Amino acid sequence: LASMYDLEPNFAEIVLREADRVLGGARGALLTLKDGTLTANAGVDQKNAPSGYAVLPPKDPADFSRKIRVEVFKRTGKKVAVMIVDSRVTPLRMGTVGYALAVSGFKPVVDLRFKRDLFGRKVRITRHSVADDLSSAAHVLMGETDERNAIVLIRDAPIDLVDEEFDSSMNIKPEECLFMASLLKKLEEGKEG
After folding, report:
1. Which structural domain range is residue 28 located in?
2. Other CB atoms closer than 10 Å to residue 1's CB: what's the count?
3. What is the DSSP string of 50-83?
4. For labelling alongside 140, which of 30, 119, 130, 134 has CA 20 to 30 A away?
5. φ, ψ for residue 60, nearest 5 deg
6. Of 57, 75, 98, at which residue does a domain stop?
7. For the domain that residue 134 is a member of, what is the CATH number?
């Protein structure tokens, strides 16, 4: 895989260990499933790591976000929500955007199904990923290179605080995902033909 996708062999090995599944790749990156999320290189990154090293995603991002939220409350008495943010690519779009690996303190997805749109029609499939929208806004300030903004404070976000953590509950099954269901169907058709 390393030579096929132009990756350093040691880096490719780390990605293979971290990934739940490798689905393919493009020059410089492997397309992987990691904890139910479609992501490049299983979230492993060489960017912002010393030469010969890689940055791994947190093992339990929901627990990590909870610990930060609880510690902020202990030290300040303030109820806050915490997001663990990473970057991702979107199919057929140039560039990275932020997304929430995990959230503690607010519900990350608002279910809009069966609400009505501007013209009174019932919404059938839309769920609004508030956590990913807020993560993208934070990502603009956090940056991707030498910005060194590990923490971003968002005030007056349209959220209700709760005493819960969320990670995999933000995911959907591959067969319910527009991208994955379509790709899996094509792969199955290829095997039959």
Report:
1. 1-57
2. 14
3. -TT--BPPPS-HHHHHHHHHHHHHHHH-----EE
4. 30
5. -135, 80
6. 57
7. 3.30.1330.100
